[in-house]
Design a protein that fits this description.
Elements: H1 3-22, H2 26-31, E1 36-39, E2 42-43, E3 47-50, E4 52-55, E5 58-60, E6 63-67, E7 76-85, E8 88-97, E9 102-112, H3 113-120, E10 130-141, E11 144-160, E12 166-180, E13 189-195, E14 200-209, E15 213-222, H4 228-234, E16 246-253
Antiparallel strand pairs: 1-4, 2-3, 3-6, 4-5, 6-7, 7-8, 8-9, 9-10, 10-11, 11-12, 12-13, 13-14, 14-15, 15-16
Length: 254
């Protein structure tokens, strides 16, 4: 291509980026899929916010974004995103490629366990505890992770024993860590489960396979000073080993 034509093409691309970036943010609400609703939109496509966002069954509070317009030249919609969750928040860097691949970097989020239980309809009698998500990198393509590095922490959750009632003075904390720089198309994506103190000692391995299958295997053991109800509840896991631990295995589909 002659140099003049190249310069003209670059100028046109720069102008297009400028026009798109400076367009009003209300345009985003009109272009969004029917399942996505944005309310109270203000600002520009480049830097804007919405008072609330609803995507299917997911409801978010005030959400703001700061796009990197030059990423459009690389075929990516990318920038920084911050939103409020029920009792928490989520923020981090995102990028969406032309093929639909979603990438999150330096992403963090927190929300009460009770809010997540209510949103998923699990019906567990849990009223306390907090979930913290910290992702160094996550890439998802066609509904399956290509890369997953980070951790999910669940803290200060009251243990629920056989009678179905939580014991408020017996709090458990757990951590699920992923360190997969490259995930095979057919899986598995593996995560290691450990406790973070409390009356219950847990180690385990979570394996995810497409489309949404999971298998969790590991060992649980009551620490010294744990209430008798915990020992009784652990009987349901199976035979006790000489060190007092019991192996467990759960599998299903999310």
């Amino acid at each position: 291509m002659p140099r003049a034509g190249l310069h003209a093409g670059l100028a046109a691309a720069v102008f297009l980026v400028f026009v798109v970036a400076s367009a009003p943010a209300s345009l985003l609400a009109r272009l969004a899929p029917a399942a996505v609703q944005l309310n109270g939109v203000q600002g520009t496509l480049w830097a804007g916010e919405a008072s609330s966002v609803r995507a299917g069954t997911v409801s978010l509070g005030r959400t703001s974004w700061q796009l990197a317009p030059w990423q459009l030249l690389l075929g990516r919609l990318a920038g920084d995103l911050e939103t409020t969750l029920p009792g928490g928040f989520a923020r981090g860097e995102f990028a969406i490629g032309l093929g639909g691949t979603l990438r999150l970097n330096d992403f963090s989020a927190t929300s009460p366990v009770a809010s997540i239980v209510a949103a998923t309809g699990m019906g567990l009698p849990v009223s306390d505890g907090q979930v913290v998500v910290e992702l160094t990198a996550l890439a998802i393509s066609d509904g399956w992770p290509e890369r997953a590095i980070g951790e999910i922490r669940v803290g200060d959750v009251p243990l629920v024993f056989r009678n179905g009632q939580p014991v408020q003075d017996q709090l458990a904390s757990f951590e699920l860590r992923f360190d997969a720089d490259e995930v095979p198309d057919t899986g598995p994506l593996e995560g290691t489960l450990t406790d973070r103190g409390g009356p219950l000692e847990v180690t385990g391995l979570l394996q995810l396979t497409p489309p949404t299958n999971y298998e969790l295997t590991g060992r649980a053991k009551a620490r010294a000073g744990a209430p008798p109800e915990m020992q009784q509840a652990l009987v349901l896991l199976g035979p006790e080993s000489p060190d007092g631990g019991r192996d467990f295995s759960f599998a299903g589909s999310l």
